[in-house]
Amino acid sequence: MSTAEELKAKGNAAQQAGNFEEAIDFYSQAIALDGSNHIFYSNRSASYLSKGDADSALQDAEKCIEVKPDWPKAYTRKGAALHSLRRYDDAIAAYEAGAAVAPADDGIKRGLAEVQKAKASAAQPPRGMGGGMGNLFGENIFARLAGNPKFAPYLADPVFVKRIQDLQRDPSNISAMQQDPRLMEVLGFLLGIDLQAARGGGGAGASADDFDAAVEEAEAEAAAAAAAAAPPSPPKARSPPREAAKEQDEGGMEVEEEWEVVEGAVSPADKKKALECKAKGNKHYSAKEFDQALAAYQEAAALDPTNMTFVSNQAAVKFEQKEWDACDELCQKAIDVGRANRASYEDLAKAYVRRGKAAAKAGDLGRAIEHYRSAQVEHYVKETERLLKNTELEWRKAQAAAYVDPEKALAAKERGNEHFRAGNWVDAIKEYEEAVKRDPSNAVYRNNLASALVKIMDFNGAKAAVEKALELDPKYVKAWAKKGDIEFVMKEYHKALESFQKGLDLENDNSLCKAGLQKTVAKIQSTGATPDEERERRAHAMADPEIQRILSDPVVQQVLQDAQQSPHELQKALANPGMRAKIEKLIAAGILQVR
User: Fold this and answer.
1) ∠ Cα 327 328 329 (to 5°)
2) Cβ contacts of residue 486 below 8 Å, gap of 6+?
3) Quick one: which H or E segment has residue 535?
4) Considering only CA atoms, which of 526, 522, 478, 524 is closest in space to residue 500?
5) Strand blocks (E) in 103-212
6) Which CATH code of 3.30.300.30, 1.10.260.100, 2.40.240.20, 1.10.3720.10 fits the domain covering 532-595?
7) pLDDT tens digit string along 363-415?
8) Which CATH superfamily groups domain 249-402?
């Protein structure tokens, strides 16, 4: 029986893989064993929220606070659940309660800032025709999109859903999301404007100018209403990054990226000095003088604390120095700086990618996957997608390797045998599959699995299992006999002949292979098949790539043409061993009939 900690670890793995129901189940089992562990409730709360069940997430968060009231993350769980439920005042109260426990906790600070921002956005006055940008992306948007045949499939993409949720929290970010054409389509739908038609039906979608125009139309009335209701306030300072040449190493250090001056934040003189320090750091970095590079980047960050690039470059140095934890901390700091100063999605994504690479180097593939996914949510890049897929593959291999246990495999096989003898085929299959997972190199378990799959008439699955068994042990005669039996049932008589013969080549007196060979030869020579059965058999054989190769052989084609004119030509061809094997295979497959 698994311990509570083992169940928690399984829940963590399921959560990282996106299997939220499975994660919830494992955490629930852990709680049943140890209801006093606050982490179990916290983790299950996160899984519920990921699944979309904010009410259950809230219950677990409150239980977590009850068990350990001095743990700040419990309050962030509660705040996040209340935020998701759009109970903004309650969420703010939860974060403030957490701040009383841990005033310096970054997670509480970030959560509080986000929910205050969401509350302010939700409180914006509506425009004349039903609301501004905040109302466009209101609570009913997902229902509207789900009911539209064109947009419903988009909701299957978590990146798209995350961007919609971001717009619900801060509609002013829509101009920064031009890179996703689906959002342009949705905006046109919500505004009742055909953006594609607006540009003359160009076919490739609306341009950035069209998009900006549509955004301005939606924002204009809301801005006017807001201006009438409140005195003007200075805009939030954010400047888009200026295009510049970039070079990156494995750590992702951005060598050239500058920001325009943000009025009222950092003086132009300090910004200039900061960029000079960064340039000096870049030279040291290129020369692999990492300590000097780090000092230069730290000086740049001190001069301009609003530019996340300077912190990100420090993380790149730590990556090169193989200080994975320090790299991770600096990446998180860069992300915090970037969010506070409204950095571009691209820069935030790069910081997450670097975190992922550092986690992978440290051997934590689960965290690496989590960071790569976060990067894709911020800004989708094909290279990051490949990195994510490769890391997921490595993680699955590592999980499979960690699962191997020959003793447990043997026990599963014995349970499978008991179910098989009792005629419980489904349970037998389940146990044999468990045995295969526990000991993937054992050919016997795969052969047993094939036998059970035959019983439920899953012949393709059975054939795949026995072929894997033979791949592991080519001299496994019992598997050759099983393969022949499966091919016989599938009416692949030419293949069955070959399988039984290979078994006899290894063990010439094997009764299973002898009996199989005899029944297959008898079936081939039998004339009792109906015309429909013969047609089905030939059609099945014609789908076999090996038969197709034989029939496409010019020499075989010539022999068959000559045989139609004179049967003696066929006898002459059969004198050649290579040609004889091909002709016999065509006869066995039912393609060629000899009377």
Assistant:
1) 95
2) 450, 454, 459, 462, 463, 466
3) helix 531-542
4) 478
5) none
6) 1.10.260.100
7) 999 999 999 999 998 899 999 999 999 999 999 988 888 899 999 999 999 99
8) Tetratricopeptide repeat domain (1.25.40.10)
